[in-house]
Amino acid sequence: MVELTLLVVFPSLMAYAASSDLLTMTIPNKIAIALVLAFGVMAGLAGLSLDALVMHLAAGALILVVTFSMFALGWIGGGDAKFAAATALWLGFGVLVDYLVIAAIAGGVLTLGLLAIRQHPLPAFAARWGWLAHLHDHRTGVPYGIALAAAALAVYPHSELWLTALTP
């Protein structure tokens, strides 16, 4: 049961957040809430120690403070801030730096790619797709949730939660 939950819940929420951000440029609050609630269940099922649980909570709180500061400065969206914090809760400090570095690199590549694509007109058939036309608009931001989700999936198998749950 624990293995199935590890393999389905977190990756599914990452995919949902990334696709939502791509299509609507928003990450719904329900994703962050689901991540927090599911973490509570998984921490119990995986047998995380109290010390490990506190460190995971601290990682989430640290990222929440940092990302909400970035949101207040207008650097990122509020959904990105909540999503990154809820993701950090799952990942803990053990892979947090790796997560942040990969997210920064993936976000940079995504941003540069969007900037390059936005220099060219959309083909007529694609311009009729509202989400793509919106994404192509130079006044639209970058769906950074894609980079955050990809980075999380890259480091997740190395996280303490994953390793604790799967260690016999």
Short description:
This protein is mainly alpha-helical and about 170 residues long.
Question: What does this molecule look like?
Answer:
The chain has helices spanning 2-24, 29-46, 50-72, 78-91, 96-117, 124-127, 130-136, 145-155, 160-166. Helix 4 packs parallel to helix 8 (145-155). It is elongated, with a radius of gyration of 17 Å. The longest helix has 23 residues, at 2-24. The chain is mostly helical.
Helices and strands, with pairings:
Blueprint: H1 2-24, H2 29-46, H3 50-72, H4 78-91, H5 96-117, H6 124-127, H7 130-136, H8 145-155, H9 160-166
Helix pairs in contact: 1-2, 1-8, 2-4, 2-9, 3-4, 4-8, 5-8
Rg, alpha carbons? 17 Å
Strand percent estimate:
under 5%
Q: What is the distance, rounded to the nearest whole angstrom, between the alpha carbons of the first and last residues?
A: 14 Å
Which structural class best describes the helix and strand composition?
mainly alpha
